[in-house]
Amino acid sequence: MADIQSPLPGIFYHQASPEEPPYKTPGDAVAEGDVIGLIEVMKTFIQVTAETAGTFVKYTVDSAAPVMAGDTLAEVE
35-56: per-residue pLDDT in tens? Predict the structure, then answer.
């Protein structure tokens, strides 16, 4: 199992906007480079991408939750 970690501190979001579905749901295929979420830092949104391919297991952080660099955001197997 591979963890997707936060590259920087900020607020983590599962989707691009509240009206949009999450980037990934459990069971979804994940390719290297797929966007799995966004981190907001000072009104700037940075894409968080998968570094490995596999199957999306779950988000480990709630959407709109504050995160620190190195925190695990999601799991891929």
Answer: 999 999 999 999 999 999 999 9
- Residue 43 makes CB contacts below 8 A (sequence gap 6+) with none
DSSP per residue, 9-51: SEEEESSSSTTSPPS--TT-EE-TT-EEEEEEETTEEEEEE-S
Number of structural domains, the chain?
Answer: 1
Are 50 and 4 in contact by the 8 Å Cβ rule? The answer is yes
| CATH number assigned to the domain comprising residue 16 | 2.40.50.100
Per-residue model confidence (pLDDT) at position 1:
77
